[in-house]
Amino acid sequence: MSTLKLLPRQTATPLEALAADYLMSCRARGLSPRTLDNCYAPALERVFLPWCAQEQITDVGQLDRKALDMFTATLLSRTGRFGTQLSKNTVHSYVRPVRQFLTWAAAEGEPVTAKPQLPKLPRLYKDVLNREEIDRMEAAAPTERDKLIIRLFADCGLRLSELLALEPGSVVRSGRQAMLAISGKGNRERRVPIPLNTVRRLDRYVSGLPKDRHSERIFLSQRRGPFGDYEPLTSSGIKQVVHDAAERAALGRTVHPHLLRHSWITEMLRRGVGPSQLRVVAGASPEVIARHYDHVSEDDAYESVIRALGSVGNSMSRRES
User: Fold this and answer.
1) Which of 88, 114, 128, 209 lies 20 to 30 Å (CA to CA) from residue 269?
2) How does 212-239 read in b/e, with b if 16+ C-beta sit within 10 Å?
3) What CATH homologous superfamily does 131-285 map to?
């Protein structure tokens, strides 16, 4: 099996120029630089375009179904830099940006006739925390700051970066309802409902913050920094809070902030929140919810059938008696 390798760059072909225009369009639309630099650009510039050059494909019109099937099949048979065969997840991460590029090209009027097929991924079952385990973590946390961090993750499904950025002004009130104004991935704004009792706790906590603090962030270090100020908690600081709470609660497994987000999304789905509504509140794409949380509906289906079978069995027993 061959390994992935870069081909020498020649004069840009029409296909390469089109890909460059696409990446520029992504930047102009405000797509996350991290997503562009770590996902889209490498998949196109280091994988897809070198393969096209190797196959002497220079124009988007040459990318018919046969050619694109060959591209995906080639990736599935290749080895990476460590000599192991590329996983389906890795191939999926390369092929998906190519599909998005060709979707954009078709919208621009280019003669796109096909898109590469995505390899079928193994079903993922998320290991989540139940509500009792989360309550134990909160109870075991040593300070109100740490308890609130656990509760906000558990009740609002925030990402780590979103919790770090919270300020007193992030809480938006309307009558008896309250929301958190969140700036999520790609600087997309969304509103996340927050329970009123958590809002009251948050208000009390904010009112007790040091008056001489310079940062507007809600969650600060508990000790003054080298310049005499209370500095905002870092990502590693939040991770340590969550890890320590899980250790104190004796859960017997490693817990990280994103696991709390997974647990919240799973709980919302099980309580009947539809994927489309959850997409808005959680800031997650429908594809992510469908790919990572399809076990929720499946588990619920099993329970529904078991309950139905139980009721059928009971009715049969009554008739027989």
Assistant:
1) 88
2) eeeeebbbbeeeeeeeeebbbbeeebbb
3) Intergrase catalytic core (1.10.443.10)
